[in-house]
Structure formats: C-alpha cells, structure tokens
Automatic annotation (TrEMBL):
Keywords: NADP, Oxidoreductase, Pantothenate biosynthesis
Keyword hit for Transmembrane: no
SUPFAM superfamilies registered for this protein in UniProt: 6-phosphogluconate dehydrogenase C-terminal domain-like (SSF48179), NAD(P)-binding Rossmann-fold domains (SSF51735)
InterPro entries linked to this entry: 6-PGluconate_DH-like_C_sf, 6PGD_dom2, ApbA, KPA_reductase, KPR-Related, KPR_N, NAD(P)-bd_dom_sf
Family (UniProt): Belongs to the ketopantoate reductase family.
Catalyzed chemical reaction(s): (R)-pantoate + NADP(+) = 2-dehydropantoate + NADPH + H(+)
Superkingdom of origin: Bacteria
Coiled-coil portions: none
Ketopantoate reductase C-terminal domain location: 177-297
E.C. designation(s): 1.1.1.169
UniProt enzyme class: oxidoreductase
Pathway linked to the protein: Cofactor biosynthesis; (R)-pantothenate biosynthesis; (R)-pantoate from 3-methyl-2-oxobutanoate: step 2/2
Stated name of the protein: 2-dehydropantoate 2-reductase
Length: 308
C-alpha cells in the first residue's frame, strides 16, 4: 500500500513512523529543518512504548507522489484547506484521505474542497510532541486511531485500512458513529486546551484548583449544548469522562494548542473555542465561558499570525 503522511509532527511522525517500521511504503511530506533532518538522520521516535528509528521517503513536493492509496493528514486544523488544495491534484478516485487532527469539522472542510468519496473521518488519541526536527517524543497515553466512512458504513476499504494499521501494531478502531467519537475527542481537547492556554498551567494545577475546575466543567457543558443542537449525542456523562481523563493524566501534561500559544506559534484556537463561539452565534446559543477564553487568547493568536 502506497501511504502518504502529510506532516511529521507528534501525530504524523508517530503513526507514520510505525507504518514505515512495519515495512509499508510510506512517504512523508515535510519541510524546512524537519525535511533535512529526516533525509539525513531518518525519523526518530522516542516513545513510552519503545524507541525506534526509520528511514522513510520524505519530500516537500506532493507532486512527486504517484497514485497514493492513503493520505494521512497530521497537520494542524487551521492548515486543512491549504493542504487539501495541495493534495487534490494527486488523488485518484480510490485514494483515501484520513484527517487525524483535532477539531470537530475537519472532514466537512475537506469534503468542500475534495471529492467527498475520497474523504474518511477520523481522530487520534496520543500525547506527543516534536522534541527536535525529525525527533518525536510520545510521552503519555495509549496511541490510537479511530476512523470510519463519513456515513459510518463498514466498507471494504476501511476494513482494508484497519488491516494495515493492525500490521503496524498500534491500536485502531473502525467507529460505529465516527461523528460522535470526533465530538467526544473534541469535547476533551477544546475544553482543556483553552483553559490551559489561558491559565498557563499544567493539568495537575488546573484540576486541583476549585475555580478553574468549575470553569472546565462550564466550558465542556457549553460544547455539549452546541453538539446537541447539531444532532450530536454528547451527554453529561461525556463531561464526566473529560474530567476523569484529566484526573488520570500525568499532572505535568499540557495540551498542544496550549504549548503553541505559550511559545508564540499559530494555534488551533479558532478551530477549538473559536469554533464553539462561532457556531453558538449561528445557532443563537450563548457560550460565555468559551467566548471569554477565546477573546482573551485572540490577541496572542493574532500576534503569532502577524495580524497585530
């Protein structure tokens, strides 16, 4: 199977690295120092499940890839449209495009640009980061990919893709309701990311502070309200699940959006809390905590994007 992994960060680097380690034909799309590091030294993955190094194909030019069977998107949510336009010319009628980035509407945004028949829906669960160009550090959580057809059909092509993932040795599931699963992940990541960026605090600090914990609850409940208005069946039990996960994770944990904001990089703020605020306005639903978080962080986001 001809696999393209667009992005060699904490997500693409880890899962793509395992696919390459399993001897699948994998081409990474990378740029800058990451591109040069992988060309020179290979891709190094440091993981709580075992370290390894692979030497996959890597390029910054998607046009070099011919007839890809699968393109796994490991970029940030705010890069979806740009990447979709770049990959569109190389897609065949059978190419599968699997988005793994955080966010509630990535598959929808891809389907607006690409042939909807090419687009799967998916998410991943992993706590990882770029330690250095070409070096990925997976330091918490059991990595997993959850994916499926947009309409939840158990098609032969998703079963074939699961077989590939099984051979690569990481946990993966064909979802019974991929949109609900995406929103469950979104509920967690949007809730904790915004609050982490706002407080500049690690999970252990936030979960033990009574007032911040209350704001986490309120953030999550607003997201559930928006999801329900869109026909997504999130419940109060899912809010409890979010807090349970936060309580179980290493107290030193931080979220990737939080790290981006704290380090002055463009982040997924608009795709997380911003998406809830925007959708709330469209649906005439008040989202005061998400709005507070979003607008307090927005000046820093604009600065990182050189809009201020």
């Amino acid at each position: 199977m001809n696999i393209v992994v667009y992005g060699a960060g904490g997500v693409g680097g880890y899962f793509g690295g395992l696919l390459a380690k399993a001897s699948f034909e994998v081409t990474f799309i990378a740029r800058g120092k990451t591109l040069e590091a992988i060309k020179t030294n290979g891709l190094q993955v440091k993981s709580i499940k075992g370290d390894f190094i692979v030497k996959p194909k890597v390029t910054n030019d998607i046009s070099e890839v011919k007839d890809p069977d699968v393109i796994i998107l490991g970029v940030k949510s705010w890069q979806i449209e740009e990447v979709a336009k770049q990959i569109k010319p190389v897609l065949t009628k059978n190419t599968l495009v699997l988005p793994l980035q955080n966010g509630a509407d990535n598959a929808d945004r891809l389907r607006e640009i690409l042939n909807p028949k090419n687009v799967l829906a998916g998410l991943c669960k992993i706590v990882s980061k770029i330690e250095a160009p070409g070096v990925i550090n997976h330091f918490a959580f059991e990595p997993e990919i959850v994916f499926g057809e947009y309409d939840n059909q158990k098609s032969d092509r998703v079963k074939d893709l699961k077989s590939v993932f099984d051979k690569a040795g990481f946990k993966n599931v064909i979802s019974d309701d991929i949109h609900l699963d995406i929103w469950k992940k979104f509920l967690f990541i949007a809730t904790i990311s915004g609050m982490g960026a706002l407080t500049r605090s690690k999970f252990g600090v936030m979960r033990s502070d009574e007032h911040i914990r209350s704001m986490i609850y309120q953030t999550a409940h607003e997201i559930v309200t928006i999801a329900n208005a869109k026909g997504i069946g999130l419940t109060n039990e899912d809010v409890d699940m979010v807090l349970a996960v936060i309580d179980q994770l290493n107290p030193e944990t931080t979220a990737s959006m939080q790290r981006d904001i704290m380090e002055g990089r463009p982040s997924e703020l608009d795709n997380f809390n911003g998406y809830i605020v925007k959708t709330g306005k469209q649906l005439h639903i008040s989202t005061p905590i998400n709005s507070f978080t979003y607008h307090c962080l927005l000046p820093q986001e604009k600065k990182a994007r050189k809009l201020l």
